[in-house]
Amino acid sequence: MNKYELALVVNAKIEDDARVATVEKAKEYVTKFGGNITNVEEWGKKKLAYEIQHMKEGFYYFIQFDAEAGVPAQLEQAVRIMDNVLRYLCVRQEA
Q: Fewer beta carbons within 10 angstroms: which end of the chain, N or C?
């Protein structure tokens, strides 16, 4: 099992309930594909470095999890088509 981190930038113009549901859906994908979530960090609303889809702010979330090597590819494929996710990145953490 490797350690990974999924970074999500979620649309800041949606309701709080929809934003929480988006993050919960991403967490469900992690467990569905065989990952084990170890930590979830919410950084809150931050200014984006550049405008994305006419938005200047987004909510940042970082989900750390343990999983096999094939899980990040499956996870990115699922997160790519999620509504309200502006950007995502899944990286392997150093041991």
A: C
Q: Whole-model pTM? A: 0.91
The conformation of residue 19, written as its DSSP 8-state character, comes to H
Q: 70-76: long-range contacts at Cβ-Cβ below 8 A with a sequence spacing of 24 or more?
A: 71/4, 71/30, 71/33, 71/34, 71/35, 72/4, 72/6, 74/33, 75/6, 75/29, 75/30, 75/33, 75/35
pLDDT above 70: percentage of residues in the chain: 99
Q: What is the dihedral of CA 3, 62, 77, 82, to 10 degrees?
A: 160
